[in-house]
Specification:
The radius of gyration is 17 Å and the shape is globular. By secondary structure, it is α/β, with parallel strands linked by helices. The protein has an eight-stranded parallel β-barrel with strand order 1-2-3-4-5-6-7-8. It has a single domain, classed as TIM Barrel (Alpha-Beta Barrel), CATH 3.20.20.
């Protein structure tokens, strides 16, 4: 199970400071983009990502908590043309996106959906019944919008439904820390990656961050 640090930041200086710390350990980061539409919060914009050279040293997953997906994907397309290493783009299921159309129009094959805790899994599976659509999916285990929101354990019960649908990679995002690990480890054979926000965000040094990473790895794999 891969561990990926997650950033939800409004301030570029804080963003750069965390990036600098994370790149000392990680090769990938998960970046939340919010514009106060789908969630009551706003972050750095997609355009802001180019303002720090550090971002070019990492692989990036983008989690779009926005309504204007077309505009966002157009911006992301331009970023890929500047050699930014964008690995995955997760867009909201609640906008009912036609993934194949988006991938074709923007020439971005790495677009997938994410689901909120209140989304109906059965409906998701009916709408996205192709392996290419559900090759990857981001499953939120908190109500989205803010770091530090409480973990919602019942969401994990739905993971087996995606596994049965041949979803090859499930990403888990939200409230993941040394307390919630006890719930997650029972499903670790189904989860490809966990995106960790506030648990890492308070780290003041590489030593502290390394200790948290090792502790979380142990908790996620030890019964």
């Amino acid at each position: 199970m891969q561990i990926i640090p997650a950033l939800l930041e409004k301030d570029l200086d804080i963003f750069e400071k965390k990036l600098k710390l994370y790149l000392s350990i990680f090769k990938s980061v998960h970046i939340d983009i919010a514009d106060n539409t789908l969630v009551h919060n706003s972050t750095l914009s997609i355009a802001d990502l180019t303002k720090t050279p550090l971002i070019r040293t990492l692989y990036i997953d983008l989690h779009l908590m926005t309504e204007n997906i077309d505009k966002n994907l157009e911006q992301i397309k331009k970023l890929t043309e500047t050699s930014l290493k964008i690995k995955n783009i997760f867009i909201p299921y609640k906008t009912f996106p036609d993934l194949n159309s988006y991938r074709s129009f923007f020439n971005l094959n790495n677009i997938y959906i994410y689901i909120d805790p209140n989304d109906e899994i059965e409906t998701v599976l009916q709408l996205y019944n192709k392996r290419s659509d559900l090759k990857k999916i981001l499953v939120l285990t908190v109500n989205p919008g803010f770091q530090g929101s409480p973990f919602i354990p019942y969401v994990l019960d739905n993971l087996t439904k995606f596994y049965e649908k041949d979803t090859s990679q499930i990403y888990l995002d939200g409230g993941i820390n040394d307390k919630s690990a006890q719930y997650i480890r029972d499903f670790n054979n189904l989860i490809s990656a966990v995106c960790v926000g506030s648990y890492f965000a308070s780290s003041k040094s590489k030593t502290e961050l390394t200790s948290k990473v090792h502790n979380l790895k142990k908790l996620l794999t030890t019964s």
